[in-house]
TrEMBL record:
Listed InterPro entries: MFS (IPR011701), MFS_trans_sf (IPR036259), MFS_Transporters (IPR050171)
GO molecular function: transmembrane transporter activity
Lineage: Bacteria, Bacillati, Bacillota, Bacilli, Lactobacillales
Membrane disposition: Multi-pass membrane protein
One GO cellular component term noted in the UniProt record for this chain: plasma membrane
One Pfam family per UniProt: MFS_1
Keyword Metal-binding assigned: no
Keyword Membrane in record: yes
Transmembrane segments: 20-37, 43-63, 92-113, 133-154, 166-185, 191-211, 223-244, 250-272
UniProt keywords, alphabetically: Cell membrane, Membrane, Transmembrane, Transmembrane helix, Transport
Cellular compartments annotated: Cell membrane
Protein name per the record: Integral membrane protein transport and binding protein multidrug resistance
């Protein structure tokens, strides 16, 4: 629906707002659930149920439908296999699809190798007398990520509003990947906090540009098919990330950092190729 209701000119701003809302909701939801889960679980579940009902009513009564079956039916490919072959013939989108696998691998590290690294290599520290060990450092990493996005997403969006797609996507990927490289090499609190900040800044730059580019690359008459094709990137990235974690005992933190460098390169170069081809065809 975002693709249907936005234009190429305002799409990046809309995706920035959406991303900010998601992270704000995560921050509020995590805080409330952590505070009330043990003693008020029933009331917490009741509140969630009411929230879901309200959300459903908002969708039904206040959001206009963007899909018109009368005008779209004749454009819809009846054979889903042929539809996906059509997507596969779109070289520009396939370049970006390939890059997106490696971009997703960078995002995945917070759930894959980073917890392993912090559990095995992080040096226990203390903050205001509270012991911070590997698992707690991962929680702090996530909290820094969410808090920085909530507080500074608007500011970053203003600073990058005149950037080209090439600059936004390449700088975003490089900074986010660099943040995880620092995290993999770091062993103490200071370096992990620096890593969290660098990775989050890259994420704030990357996400609006990449989502807007993905929408622009889709054929407007086959958005569902293109979205379905794009959905395979996350499972592939998860499998590859899992393999790297499984083999990490062979090459350790330094080896994983080297792999991350190549992942960054494979995320940046095909993305830039897709952008140049799209702009030359526009």
């Amino acid at each position: 629906m975002i693709v249907d209701w936005t234009t190429s000119g305002n799409r990046r701003v809309v995706y920035s707002i959406q991303y900010w809302i998601i992270n704000f909701a995560i921050m509020i939801g995590s805080g409330l659930s952590g505070w009330f889960f043990r003693d008020y679980l029933v009331w917490l579940l009741l509140a969630i149920t009411i929230e879901e009902i309200v959300s459903c009513l908002v969708v039904i009564f206040w959001i206009d439908e963007s899909f018109n079956p009368d005008t779209q039916q004749h454009k819809q490919e009846s054979n889903i296999i042929k539809a996906y072959f059509t997507v596969a013939k779109d070289r520009i989108f396939m370049y970006y699809l390939f890059a997106s696998v490696f971009i997703a691998m960078i995002f995945n590290q917070i759930d894959y190798y980073l917890p392993v690294h912090l559990s095995d290599s992080f040096r226990t520290a203390r903050i205001f007398g509270i012991e911070v060990y590997g698992q707690r450092m991962l929680t702090i990493f996530l909290m820094v990520n969410t808090l920085v996005i909530v507080l500074f997403m608007g500011r970053v969006n203003k600073l990058t509003k005149n950037w080209s797609r090439s600059s936004g996507i390449s700088i975003g990927i490089i900074l986010q990947g660099l943040g995880f490289m620092i995290a993999f090499l770091g062993r103490d609190l200071t370096w992990e906090l620096i890593a969290a900040l660098v990775a989050t800044i890259g994420e704030m730059i990357l996400v609006p540009f990449s989502q807007a580019l993905r929408a622009d690359l889709m054929d407007g008459d086959q958005v569902g098919t293109y979205t379905g094709a794009f959905s395979v990137t996350q499972p592939i990235a998860s499998v590859l990330s899992g393999i790297l974690v499984s083999l990490s005992s062979l090459y350790g933190n330094i080896g994983m950092t080297i792999f991350m460098f190549f992942i960054i390169v494979l995320g940046v170069l095909p993305s830039l190729r897709a952008i140049r081809m799209h702009e030359s065809h526009s």
